Amino acid sequence: MIETKHLCAGYGKHTVLHDISMAFPTGQVTVLLGPNGCGKSTLVKAVLGLLPDRTGDVLFDGVSMDHLSVRQIAQKAAYMAQARSIPSITARRMVLHGRFPYLGYPRRYRPEDREIARRALAWADAEELADRPMAELSGGQRQKVYLAMALAQDTETVFMDEPTTYLDVRHQIEVMTVSRRLADMGRAVVLVLHDLSLALREADQLAVLEEGVLRQVGSAEEIFVSGVLDRVFGVAVKRVRTDRGWQYYYE
Amino acid sequence: MKNWRTSSIPQHKTGTTASVLVGLVLLAALLNLCLGAETIPPGTVGRVLTGGENGTVAFRIIQYVRLPRACACLLTGAALAASGTIIQGVLSNALAAPSTIGVNAGAGLMVAVCCAVAPSAVTLVPYAALLGGFLGVSLVLFIAERTGASKITLVLAGVAVSSIFSAGIDAVITFAPDALNGYSDFRIGGFSGVSMSKIAPAVWPIALSFAAALSLHNEMDILMLGTEQAQSLGVSAKKLRLLVLMLAAVMAGAAVSISGLIGFVGLIVPHIMRRLVGEESGPLLVTSALGGAALLGFCDLLARMLFAPFELPVGIVMALVGGPFFIWLLQRRGHS
C-alpha cells in the first residue's frame, strides 16, 4: 500500500501541496476531488516521484521512496498521465512497453512479457486494436491502450489522472467499470476526477483537496454528510435514492 | 490527431523497406566506384576490391580516390541521418536535426580549432568534433530550457548558437588560413580529396554510438511518451535523454570531421523513413542510417557528374534537395 506522510511538493519555489498525509488502500477506488489548481495532479506526480521538489515522505509498503529506484517505483505503481504524447507506434508495442520496468539486460522483451501484454490488451478490450498505430486511434481507443499498458505493468496501484476527460458517456462508464474490476482484483486504483456525481457514486474513498490542503478523506457518505464539497466547490450537492442506490447531483 | 508524426504505418513494410535501402546503398556505392572522369566497368571494380588489378590505373583510381570517397559518403550519410533520427525522436521536434540545433556547427568549430592548434594530430579531429557537437547541443538545450523550451525556441536557439560557432570558425580561418586545408569545402560540406586516413578515426565513434543507440531503442520509444510517462515506466528520462543526445552528437560530430558541415541529411531522412516504417525507434534508426547513406551516396554522385569535369561540393546538392523539403515541412506544419 502507498501512504504519504506530511507530504509537501511543488514546482521550484512554488509549493502546491501542504502537509498531505493519507493512504491509498488496496482493493479500493480512491478519487481525488477538488477545484482546478488545487493540487490533485501534483499529488499524483509527487507520490510517483515525478516532482523533484518534495518534503515529507511517500511509503511504498512501508519503504520510503527515497530508498527506491525509479524502476522499483515503476514496479509498484502505474500511471496514466493527463497529457499524453501519441507516438505512431502500434498499440501492441505500446502495451509491451508496460513491461519495461521488469526488463533486465540485454533489454529485450521475453515471450512471457509478450504474453502478459497480449492478456492486458484482451482484458482492456483492446485486442482488435493491437496492430493499429496509436496515432490512428480515437480518444476512447487510446485510453483503452494506455489502460492495457498500465495493466501490463502489473503494479499494486494504478494512478489515472483525469481518465474520463474528453470521453463520451459510454467510455466514461467503461473507465469506471474497469477501475472497479481492478479494485476487485485487489489493486489500489486512484483517479483524479472532476465529475462530482460520478466520483460520489463510484468511489470507495474520496480525498477532497483545496488550495493544496487535504480537507477531508472518507467514504462518499462521510464526505456528503460533512458538506465539505459544498464549501470547497461553492455548490449545493444533493442526492436522491434510486434503485441503484444514491444518485448525486448539485445546484 | 494530426501532428508532425506520421499518421499511419504501412504494416509489414519495414523488412521490404530495409531490403530496398540496402540495395540502394550497394547501387550507390557501385556507381560511385564505376563512374567519374574515367568510367571503370563493374567487373574491373570487383577485381580491384578483391585484390586484383594491382598497379593499374583503375586500381589507383579506386584505391586512392573513389573507394575512400564512397566510404566517406556512406558513413557520413548514415551517421548524420541516424543522429537526426535520435534528435528528432527524443526532443519530439520535427525541426530538430544536427544542423539546426548547433551540433554540426559546434563540431565544425572544434574541428577548425583542432586543425589550427594541432595540424598533425589527425586522429584527434573526430574526438574534437564530437566534443564540439555535444557542446553545441548542450548549449542549445540550456538556452531553450531557460527561455521556454518550446519547439520553436529550440530551433531559434540552434540558429543563434550555430551563428556564433560559425563566426568562431571564420575567426579560426582568419587567424590560421591553412587550418582547414584538408577540407576543400568545409563550410558547405564535401568529399573532394577525402582519404582513408581521415575516415578511419571516425569509424569507431560512429559505429559504437550507433550500436549503443540501437541497444536503447526501447528506451527511446518510451521517451516519446513524454517525460512523466517515461519515468513512471522506470526510465530516468532526463539522464537517458542526455545520454542519447550525446550519442547523436558523437555520430554527427564524427561525420563532420570527415565531410565538413553538410546540412539537411539529418533533417529530411528521418521524416522520409518515418513515413515508410513508422516511429518505432529500432527499425527507424536502421532504415534512417541506410537511407542517409543511400541519399548522400547518390547526391555525391550527382555532385560529381552533373557538371563534369567540374565538381560541385555535395553540400550544395543537399541544400538544393533539403531546402525545398524544409519549406514543404514548414508549410505542412502550418496547415496542420
Tell me the layout of helices and strands.
The complex is a heterodimer of chains A (251) and B (336).
Chain A: E1 2-11, E2 14-24, E3 29-33, H1 40-47, E4 54-60, E5 63-64, H2 70-74, E6 77-80, H3 91-96, H4 111-123, H5 139-152, E7 157-161, H6 169-184, E8 188-192, H7 196-202, E9 205-210, E10 213-218, H8 220-226, H9 228-233, E11 237-242, E12 245-250
Parallel strand pairs in A: 3-8, 3-9, 6-7, 7-8
Antiparallel strand pairs in A: 1-2, 1-4, 4-5, 9-10, 11-12
Chain B: H1 14-34, H2 42-49, H3 57-91, H4 103-117, H5 125-146, H6 151-175, H7 196-215, H8 217-223, H9 227-232, H10 237-259, H11 265-277, H12 281-305, H13 314-335
Helix pairs in contact in B: 1-3, 1-12, 2-3, 3-7, 3-10, 3-11, 3-12, 4-5, 4-6, 4-10, 5-6, 5-10, 7-10, 11-12, 12-13
Would you mind describing this structure in some detail?
The complex is a heterodimer of chains A (251) and B (336). With 251 residues, chain A is of the alpha/beta class. Helix content of chain A is 33%, strand content 29%. Chain A has nine helices and twelve strands. Chain A has helices spanning 40-47, 70-74, 91-96, 111-123, 139-152, 169-184, 196-202, 220-226, 228-233, and strands at 2-11, 14-24, 29-33, 54-60, 63-64, 77-80, 157-161, 188-192, 205-210, 213-218, 237-242, 245-250. In chain A, the strands form three sheets. A six-stranded mixed β-sheet of chain A has the order 6-7-8-3-9-10, sandwiched between helices. Chain A has a four-stranded antiparallel β-sheet with strand order 2-1-4-5, covered by helices on one side. A two-stranded antiparallel sheet of chain A has the order 11-12. In chain A, β7, α6 and β8 (188-192) form a beta-alpha-beta unit. Chain A starts with a strand and ends with a strand. Chain B has 336 residues and is mostly helical. Chain B has a single domain, classed as ABC transporter involved in vitamin B12 uptake, BtuC (Orthogonal Bundle), CATH 1.10.3470.10. Chain B is 72% helix and 0% strand. Chain B has 13 helices and no strands. Chain B has helices at 14-34, 42-49, 57-91, 103-117, 125-146, 151-175, 196-215, 217-223, 227-232, 237-259, 265-277, 281-305, 314-335. Chain B is globular, with a radius of gyration of 20 Å. Residues 1-9 of chain B have low confidence and may be disordered. Classes of the chains: A alpha/beta (251), B mainly alpha (336). Chains A and B meet through α2 and β6 of A and α8 and α9 of B.
